[in-house]
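Predict the structure of M1 family metallopeptidase.
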Amino acid sequence: MKYILNGLFLTAVFFSAFAQNNNSYWQQEVDYKMNVQMDVKTFQYKGTQELKYTNNSPDTLNKVFYHLYFNAFQPGSEMDVRSRTISDPDSRVMDRISKLSPSEIGYIKPTLFTQDGVDAKYVIKGTVMEVMLNKPIFPGENTVLNMNWDAQVPLQIRRSGRNNADGVALTMTQWYPKLAEYDFEGWHADPYIAREFYGVWGNYDVTITIDESYTIGGTGYLQNPAAVGHGYTVPGQKPMHPVKGKYTWHFLAPDVHDFAWAADANYVHDTYPGPNGVTLHFFYKDDPEIAENWKNLQPKTAELMEFFNEQVGEYPYEQYSVIQGGDGGMEYAMCTMITGDRNFGSLVGVTAHELAHSWFQFVLATNESKHEWMDEGFTSYISDEAMNSVMQEKKPNPHSGSYRSYFFMATSGVEQPLTTHADRYASNRAYGVNAYSKGSVFLTQLGYVIGPENLSKTLKRYYTDFKFKHPTPNDFIRTAEKVSGFELDWYLTDWAQTTNTIDYAIKAVDNEGENTKVTLERIGLMPMPIDLYVTYEDDSQELFYIPLRMTWGEKSNPFTDLKRTVLEDWAWAFPTYTFEIKNGKKVKNMMIDATRRMADINQENNIYEK
Ligand SMILES: [Zn+2]
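Done. Here is the predicted structure for M1 family metallopeptidase.
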């Protein structure tokens, strides 16, 4: 009952969000019904899929594309060859795919495909399946696509697979034929080379038949807890008798764009109350070495969810699961798969990051392949803030690590712009620094430009306006503009579309009688407003604020206990800027941006010491 009410509520939010923001916005819609029969001995499974696909676009579609991600785990695949030819391969992948035997590879092989009951032609190239439709799908119409398939779960190499390093039997992510997304930029049938996903919003109805000893955790609300037990029922309640040694698990997941699950015969399954009635589930191996950390993680997960609810917006589903599985940490719908044999700080840290993705990636579902920094960067930003608060790390700047990584890359000569497609980075390192660090600095530094209170409001409004959609970088920056009143397109352009850097300097400080003449210089190409902190010889302090003309805005004083003087704005084209301090005080020292939120690649020329 609770599920049905929430489903209706979510649907209402869906449509009102369309109406409020952008009348021309549309998104496709899927309704999946899948049945899976898993053989836990051979790691092979059979699946059937009935997919109702609604074309909300203004275009007539003559074909559709599917992702068959498991095909990446075959010798000679694009993922394999890329890993063997990139300069810094992921240590989890290396040449391991090339060494998989036929019984260890992954595959999804369709055995039947129909459109509205009639066979349709298709071709499969690597991880992508192209279907030539029998009849076009006109704007506003829908069609029913049926597929049956045989599949094999690969030995775990990356993200999904069998028998991971922690001994988890099945990490079932990217495991089913998944329709590619079609949006205002057309089809996004990206091959699975290394990373990043983009899916169609909709509903999933999934039944999984598996040996009775296996516990399943994952996306979706279990519809038959009393039948299967495994920690989903009240203690003491006996599940039904399995049929031929197997249980069939039935899950429903409304308003998601993916479905993931994991299963193991040796999982402990705990639940813990989260904020606003959300149930937190924890699935971990029954191993005394990790049990204490996994118990202590549970109240911390609730605190983390509370933090994100307050800072961004309320988590919209009824459950969230932290599942031991995968090969590090990876985010999915209503759950995460993480490796579990970690120290406590690392266990909380990875959970904080993956849980934060429920906001930045899952509910705010940007196209990660194109805008990887909007999910990894924003997630890094908010999870660093959360760790500082929940783990009481009390760092003055929890983002300093992100700045350090960015500075290293920006001065390396091999930086690529943030607009680079996630698969097209020259190295894994360049991708990682851009997506995680430069993306995180984007937000922290935006707080420097428009003020922290405006940054905080921007995140909340972004969530309110774009949840359950596919927001773009422009949607985000327009939100920041509306909240702050600043013009900010230059900020998105320079930071995300170029490798321009920031370098401002204190060029000269001259005493002219009672007055002090200060000359600042813009050396880098990227514009910035300036906060100049001055300490006088009597140890009193003053903040001088030089707005950037092209923003047509003025932020409020970030330190209310510090005297601030707002100077004339600085137009970008002028390389230098001069002003005079005429209060009769002698200057002892001064510094551009003492909070170090402006990512100035040369900090040495930011300081003047008499
Ligand atoms: Zn992440």
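The chain has twelve helices and 31 strands.
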